[in-house]
């Protein structure tokens, strides 16, 4: 297992659809183990393969929940179904998200309150569970990464302007930028 660098907004792999995993083999299991180790070192609640520079449809998560779902797991080739996203403005006190690929920044975003996730684990066994509340938010956030979306791409106009300003101020939106969990300062202050 190894901690991998996390790519920052602007890296092309974050902005294109990831491809399906074709082989459930040792290479996949090594990638998943590395993703868990990287997620843990970064104090993340989820990590998608594109965030470590790998354009495959995989994400890991570690989020205690009250749903009939594992607190920690991996989903390979996931399918996500959600309830309707509320049309109201996001509440900055209740709906603020962060992202390891937009390090140190956080902006409010409205998400669906329920999600169903299906797919496979790293051994090819079926995965199927429902998520509610913040756990549902985590599932949607990680799934978006697999479709080439970073959460700042979904922000309302007001918050999108603030995010673009932060991206410019940090010198992001160019390829080749990363940060290393456990080596670089924790951008979220954990």
Question: What's this model, at a glance?
Answer:
It comes from Arthrobacter saudimassiliensis. By secondary structure, the protein is an alpha+beta fold. Helix content is 23%, strand content 25%.
Biggest sheet: strands side by side, in what order? Answer: 2-3-4-7-8
| H/E topology pattern | EHEEEEEEEHHE
Strand content: 25-35%
- Oligomer category: single chain
Number of helices: 3
Which fold name corresponds to the CATH topology? Answer: Peptide Deformylase
Question: Which class do the helix and strand fractions yield?
Answer: alpha+beta
Span between termini: 22 Å
Task: State the domain count.
Answer: 1
- At the first level of CATH, the class is Alpha Beta
Proportion of residues in helical segments: 10-25%
Averaged pLDDT:
96
CATH architecture: Alpha-Beta Complex
Radius of gyration: 16 Å
Give a short account of the largest sheet.
5 strands, antiparallel
Number of strands: 9
Walk me through what this model shows:
The structure is a single chain. This protein has 190 residues and is α+β, with helices and mostly antiparallel strands. The protein has one domain: Peptide Deformylase (Alpha-Beta Complex), CATH 3.90.45. Helices cover 23% and strands 25% of the residues. It has helices at residues 26-41, 133-146, 157-170, and strands spanning 6-7, 46-48, 58-62, 72-82, 96-99, 102-108, 114-120, 126-132, 178-179. It has a five-stranded antiparallel beta sheet. A hairpin with a 5-residue loop joins strand 7 (114-120) and strand 8 (126-132). The model has no long low-confidence stretch (mean pLDDT 96).
